[in-house]
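Hi R.,

Here's the chain you asked about this morning:
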Amino acid sequence: SETTVRKGVDELEAGEEPLGRVRRPGGGRKKAADLDPGLRAALLALVEPAERGDPMSPLRWTVKSTRILAAELSRQGHRVSADTVGDLLREEGFSLQANAKTVEGTQHPDRDAQFRYINDQAKDHMGAGDPVISVDTKKKELVGDYKNGGRQWRPEGEPVQVRTHDFLDRQGPGKVIPYGIYDIAANTGWVSVGTDHDTAAFAVASIRRWWQARGRHDYPTATRLLITADAGGSNGYRTRTWKTELAALAAETGLDIMVCHMPPGTSKWNKIEHRLFSHISMNWRGRPLTSHDVIVNSIAATTTRTGLKVHAELDPGTYDTGIKVTDDEIDALPMSRHRFHGDWNYTLHPQSRGTAGAAKNSRSADGPSEGPSTGCLRSRELT
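And here is the predicted structure, written out as tokens:
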């Protein structure tokens, strides 16, 4: 006010020392927590009912915003505002926090051992100049003017107009299934954008395309191929068509195809997730995937500062679902299960069933192994 300003001018002209604060000691209104000693305890009883307060708190199952907390405290006889509640919570060490995904649940007892086994196999293959690839299916994407998460720079007030609801248009292109192959040693990616079904045949067809276009040229002397994959999905260790399709690929290429699956519940540690798929999602964030060309070009344009290069192409082929593979067909495959977790680790050989036995018997004890008959594959000791 004018009076306060005039008083300050008089003090400065008189040469008095500045007070160093707005009010003199003891001035101003007392804090709510000082006037009401029970306010702080009542607030803590509302925000921590399971730890230090009443488990029958009326806000036990309510979103505890400062406004709701202030209303409940006022109902209990404490005069307090929402801003004061926020100040008290910060003084007690509280802050707004989201849920943290850290509890992984029950872990397989051989989880760490499988990780070490995969690491040893990858080192052995890369040391010998053989390819090691990480494979997986990325999240299915709607094709059309649908909302895509993220933001991008645009003129102010001119966001891209997209549909209100993400209902699939039956007359539109539908969905796409990006299946990725990440070459760990070369730091290159290959993505087949499928338009039909996410099946094992589609997954192996994508690997076949990668090998014909890139793999055999990058590794001309390779005799083996190591694939690291998730435990489930189209390339899961329980999917029989995955094994039969890989056996056909081994016969075509002449490669020993070794497959090592990630333990159940650990798909996020698959290399392709954080070295390829995450960068694709960041590259097309905030951009509606309006057509197949937009999707393919956005994937192919993905790069990183570490030199990642990605090739993408559309796969318009059809892949039937519900294909059955019998026990006899599985037993006839030129496949050897490794001594350590033969369900997660196995090798498909290009040789016939008769000639594959000699090659398997010549391998070391740490490598793939198979008994003298197909019946041994059903033994509890081996599998």
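One quick note: The CA atoms of residues 59 and 72 lie 8 Å apart.

Cheers,
M.
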